[in-house]
Design a protein that fits this description.
Elements (H helix, E strand, L loop, with lengths): L2 E4 L5 H12 L3 E6 L2 H15 L4 E5 L5 H14 L5 E4 L17 H16 L1 H5 L5 E5 L9 H4 L7 H22 L4 E6 L7 H7 L6 H13 L9 E4 L4 E3 L8 H15 L1
Parallel strand pairs: 1-2, 1-4, 2-3, 4-5, 5-6, 6-7
Antiparallel strand pairs: 7-8
Helix pairs in contact: 1-2, 1-9, 3-4, 4-7, 7-10
């Protein structure tokens, strides 16, 4: 049995993936912004799966101090993690980030998983055949100097695309730096039937289960043990090329250096 943490798992494909893992008897930790909703979802997953080994963590991912606090909570409660799915993400919102004026999409979709993953690295290193699955997107766009400088000057769709490319670039860098952990970036599918797609576009193209199934497979299938540092495009149903910037060593190094400067 695996010990699993899925961020952003109080609804959408995160929650459905948590239920799928729970039904198999794994120990599953979920995460959400709201404590009441999180507790309700934990009870819901226990009821749906018959598995009592479900718990959770509360953190607002637009606040990096809250993310660091969650990392400390994880280290105090969990000795090892076999699977981390960085699923938490945001697209359309009227909220502002709580981190130095940076666009909320950049903070939640990239900086927060960067901070969380690095701060719980020791717990991940204790896992068995550890895997990290980072949720990217078909929408990927060059990370601008303005974004890196914390200037929110882009439309929501552009800011979202930049945050997802940043996440993908970091995934590849993390995979190289941590070869003992299988790290995969994935576009789970465009316009899945989720809250995010409904709020952003008012429609969907595919059922949420399409995303759930690929997250599950990438996280646990023996078939993907040697696929670290790759990008899976679930619109195509195969590993594919991400945005060209993700393979540009200079741009990746600049992103990581700037990220460290911003955070630490």
């Amino acid at each position: 049995m695996k010990t699993i943490l899925i961020t952003g798992s109080t609804d959408g494909i995160g929650k459905l993936t948590a239920i799928k893992f729970a039904k198999e008897g794994n120990t599953v930790f979920v995460h959400g912004r709201n404590k009441e909703k999180l507790n309700y979802v934990i009870s819901e997953i226990k009821d749906a799966s018959g598995n009592q080994n479900i718990d959770g963590f509360v953190a607002d991912f637009s606040d990096l101090e809250a993310v660091s606090k969650m990392a400390e909570d994880i280290k105090s409660k969990i000795s090892k993690l076999d699977i981390l799915i960085n699923n938490a993400g945001i697209f359309k919102t009227s909220a502002a980030s709580k981190f130095n004026g940076f666009d909320i999409r950049y903070v939640v979709n990239y900086l927060a998983p960067y901070v969380l993953t690095n701060e719980i690295l020791s717990v991940l290193q204790n896992g068995e055949h550890t895997r990290i699955v980072n949720l990217s997107s078909a929408a990927q766009s060059h990370v601008s100097d303005a974004t890196l400088a914390g200037i929110s000057m882009h439309a929501a769709s552009e800011a979202y695309a930049q945050s997802k490319l940043a996440l993908t670039m970091w995934s590849f860098a993390f995979a190289k730096a941590n070869p003992e952990i299988t790290t995969i970036a994935v576009n789970p599918g465009s316009l899945l039937n989720t809250k995010m797609a409904k709020e952003a576009y008012g429609q969907h193209w595919s059922p949420a289960e399409k995303g759930v199934n690929i997250l599950y497979d990438l996280a646990i299938s023996h078939e993907h043990e040697n696929d670290s540092g790759k990008y899976f495009d679930n619109d195509k149903g195969t590993f594919s090329k991400a945005h060209p910037d993700a393979y540009d060593k200079v741009l990746v190094a600049e992103l990581i250096a700037k990220t460290k400067e911003i955070i630490w």
